[in-house]
């Protein structure tokens, strides 16, 4: 009988650890979300890689057949949005182009979703999708506007230190709705993103300079067909890098930054005025030099 007691004590001692492991696993599972990505192009797939690595369940829908890409990430691809919505995702994430967002949202059978589904979006402009979602979604649906200020190129080595801008437009304060929003934002925080909470209006005012201006200068330089030389300076190398980075984005994105951010029009006008002012200063100095040379030559003769 003596030989059995240690075994009994060992089992008893192991039970608390088993319960702790089960509780930890339950907490981990509760932290996972079922995320439906609408618009499974390059950026949607880029986000999905991290979502999948963190253990979230992924659903995907796109006009183009990206079923192979979805399968490689462990996501379920649905060509019919009705079938996707019937899976009752916790979060519907819009990762469409700016220009197609309204059409995609109107075609989404939201009546097949749970009434308090969280809608999030990752567009490069913010006031436009905010107003669109408020207009088309029933009041029971939660709305979170976000903008990861990075992409497949700048975020390829990790998201640490990169900014994630967000506004909690409409998040219910009852049930687990606030917690669900927090869990979605935690995806980015866990990756080390710099979390920046600001209004959509503030974002667009700043983004006109940080994004639209950058894209405009990059596209303008690309029209010059600049080439690398044997005597490139660091500044010139930075310009070539800018052309490369902005050139990898579609004109549709650039056009969206202009059309759907009212601040971009004013910035383009300011840029045009600044360029004309700079040309005026340069040609003014040139005319002064030419006049001086003409009069000096005349006096010398």
TrEMBL record:
Q: Does the keyword Oxidoreductase apply?
A: yes
The Gene Ontology biological process terms listed for this entry are:
tyrosine biosynthetic process
- Is Oxidoreductase given among the entry's keywords? yes
Q: Please give the Gene Ontology molecular function terms for this protein.
A: arogenate dehydrogenase (NADP+) activity; NAD+ binding; prephenate dehydrogenase (NAD+) activity; prephenate dehydrogenase (NADP+) activity
Highest taxon listed in the record's lineage: Eukaryota
* Start and end residues of each Prephenate/arogenate dehydrogenase domain: 33-301
Q: Which InterPro entries match?
A: 6-PGluconate_DH-like_C_sf (IPR008927), Arogenate_DH_2 (IPR012070), NAD(P)-bd_dom_sf (IPR036291), PDH_N (IPR046826), Prephen_DH (IPR003099), TYRAAT1/2 (IPR045011), TYRAAT2_C (IPR059064)
Keyword annotations for this protein, in alphabetical order, are: Oxidoreductase
Query: What's one Pfam family the UniProt record gives for this protein?
Result: TYRAAT1_C
| Official protein name in the record | Prephenate/arogenate dehydrogenase domain-containing protein
